[in-house]
Write a structure and sequence with these properties.
The protein is an all-alpha fold. The protein contains 23 helices and 2 strands. The chain has one domain. The protein has a two-stranded antiparallel sheet. The radius of gyration is 22 Å and the shape is globular. The C terminus is likely disordered.
């Protein structure tokens, strides 16, 4: 009953005309940046963070959430039509989706991706509504020791689930933790690692790092790639409706992908990306029907499963962020940054102190998903036209907006210089094959970890065993240790490398 009352409150907030406009704007922008290769949700949200200073918290978060799940939809369009995944989690969709487009079946592929995404998005939203309150109740039992252990688990999870080298992922986390230490000590009030630069006494701005590494770094990386002339299947997109056989094959894949994505989305690291790879692997393991198109040659299950998984994963990744204040991925880290900018402390108290924001955000996700299916399927032609805009016209506009956004943070050119410095750093990471997402997680969680560590030690009078003697804390640390042990096993290590390299 409480759930229905809460959802009624949420829909009351979401159906406010201002919030509806921001949900639509977020979904539209998300689709747009998903369609345009090279501009992911992380870079876009990082660029838009300065703009939320002028907005109320609820419409700001509704818009940013819309951008995130909108990008999941948009990424599938380019993956299917021109074999360019607009978003990292659409890499798997391109394998069979592009083959379907080449065979003149782009319409059914796009429809399967759209329907799968909508269904998974709706289920993900219901899961958030159902599981968020009990998780919040559990979160209130957390003390400083438990929060510290949970953050350790989150960081280890981010390392384990990061694609590529484990050493590089650990290095990124450590670098993020070190950057988070540049500030004024909370207890003593002494500036740390500021090197007598006044602007650094308050720490490096989260927006500055995010925009430099993801926004500027992404642009420099894209400019370094050779321009490729790709075939766009605009003429082939005629019949959107899939056949009865298509629906029969796609529906079980949608259900399996949604279930997998809902589970894996909660995990720290790349939940949506991992879910897409896992769903594709599961579909390949399922028994083939007689006459079914092989995988890698245009099987509709290879589109429906991963697309459902990455959308369900995108939705459920909000659960740890909203209930525990722990961001499971880079986008959620940006959402935490946005909440902090608006003076809201992420964590269990959000649901009790800001119920309109909490339930309004959840309700807006369902409305946003409905908007997206209406936006995506009829407007495919428009999205394709956008792909013909040369990148040399796009990137100067993006750079200008980024610089304006950075300057307006504090009306100080120092932030622009810092953004430029992190642009170089971001490009270096790209060249070295280092994922910047763990760095962002480390930067966000570092100060929170330090604060909770010191608070726990103060309460226990310097007794380090407090982390092992408290049952919840000990359980979380054991889970973190188990995660490390499992990932170091030779068979798992090989499987992990295969998962992230397979078909990519």
């Amino acid at each position: 009953m409480d759930l229905l009352q809460n959802l009624a409150l949420g829909f009351g907030v979401a159906f406010n005309i201002t919030n509806l406009l921001y949900a639509f704007g977020g979904a539209l922008l998300g689709t747009l940046i998903g369609v345009l290769p090279g501009l992911g949700p992380v870079a876009t949200i990082a660029m838009l963070l300065p703009s939320i200073y002028a907005l109320d918290a609820t419409p700001a978060l509704i818009m940013l959430a819309g951008i995130y799940y909108g990008a999941q939809y948009g990424g599938s369009t380019t993956a299917i039509l021109i074999n360019v995944p607009g978003e990292s989690s659409s890499v798997v969709t391109a394998i069979d989706g592009y083959k379907m487009a080449r065979a003149g079946r782009a319409g059914p592929a796009l429809a399967a991706a759209g329907v799968g995404s909508f269904f998974a998005g709706c289920v993900g939203t219901l899961i958030i509504a159902a599981f968020a309150p009990p998780l919040t109740e559990l979160a209130f039992k957390f003390g400083p020791a438990e929060y510290f252990s949970l953050m350790v688990l989150g960081l280890i999870g981010a390392v384990v689930l990061a694609s590529g080298s484990l050493i590089k992922a650990i290095s990124m986390i450590v670098l993020g933790l070190l950057l988070g230490q540049i500030n004024t000590d909370v207890i003593s009030g002494v500036p740390r690692y500021s090197f007598d630069i006044p602007e650094l006494t308050d720490g490096i701005g989260f927006v500055t790092i995010a925009m430099g590494v993801f926004g500027f770094g992404e642009i420099i990386a894209n400019l370094g790639k050779p321009a490729e002339h790709r075939e766009v299947f605009t003429k082939d997109v005629k019949g959107i409706m899939p056949t009865k056989e298509d629906l029969k094959n796609a529906f079980p894949a949608i259900l399996r992908g949604t279930a997998l994505g809902s589970l894996l989305g909660v995990l720290p690291g790349g939940g949506a990306l991992l879910a897409a790879f896992a769903a594709y692997t599961v579909e390949k393991k399922m028994r083939m029907k007689p006459g079914e198109v092989p995988f890698g040659q245009g099987n509709i299950r290879g589109v429906a499963g991963p697309e459902s998984a990455n959308n369900a994963g995108a939705q459920t990744s909000f659960i740890p962020m909203l209930t525990l204040g722990i961001p499971p991925n880079a986008v959620m880290a940006l959402m935490v940054g946005a909440m902090t900018i608006k003076g809201i402390q992420p964590g269990p108290q959000v649901m009790t102190s800001n119920p309109q924001l909490f339930w309004g955000l959840i309700a807006s996700m369902w409305i946003g998903n409905l908007m997206l299916i209406i936006l995506n399927l009829p407007l495919i032609g428009i999205w394709i036209k956008l792909l013909t805009v040369p990148y040399r016209f796009l990137y100067p506009a993006i750079l200008v907006f980024c610089c304006i956004g950075l300057y307006t943070l504090n009306n100080n050119p120092f932030d622009v210089y810092m953004g430029a410095m992190f642009a170089v750093v971001g490009y270096a990471f790209y060249k070295l094959g280092c994922e910047p997402a763990p760095l962002l997680l480390g930067f966000i969680l570092g100060p929170m970890m330090e604060e909770n560590l010191r608070r726990a030690l103060l309460l226990s009078r310097g007794d380090w065993t407090t982390f092992a003697t408290r049952p919840l804390s000990a359980g979380l640390l054991l889970a973190a240790l188990a995660m490390v042990v499992v990932v170091m096993l030779p068979s798992i290590k090989a499987k992990r490398q295969e998962a992230f390299q397979d078909e990519a």
